[in-house]
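Quick log. Single chain, no ligands specified.
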Amino acid sequence: MERIIVIGCPGAGKSTFARRLRDLTGLPLHHLDMIWHLPDRSTITEAEFDQRLDRVLAEDRWIIDGNYGRTLEKRLERCDTVFLLDLPAAACLEGARERIGRPREDLPWTEEELDPEFRQWIEDFPRTQLPGIYRALDRLGAGKEIHIFRSREEADRWAEEFGELVSEIVRH
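-> predicted structure:
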């Protein structure tokens, strides 16, 4: 596990899980939202985003947190491990609501409300985005490790077991 992507619906807990992976592995963590968005809520150009992402992908070790479907295929090609947080939309809406008003390292501003358009994106994600993600995962060749979590508890349990394994290795 040297090149990891963490994908799933907004509010599923991708960034939280990615931070936990970073803390367990020591791999550098890159949040796609921090690359794409500027503090004034504007964005960089697609060309600049692609250049920045390509620089990350060229590195030997990393964790990349975020969906950005337009660039999913190139991230899948380069990664060795995929974590998909496939939680129900209701759980993702709850996760998105819980982070309102809290500063985050994965977004360059603090969300002040759950924007209706963003809410709709979350509600539609299982129908509009997940099928394409699963098709892309099905096309992956051998040698890729894929983990799919259907609840935060599953993700937490995996991370806890992985952390114990890492601790055991470090002790010996």
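The beta strands are 3-8, 29-31, 62-65, 81-85, 145-149.
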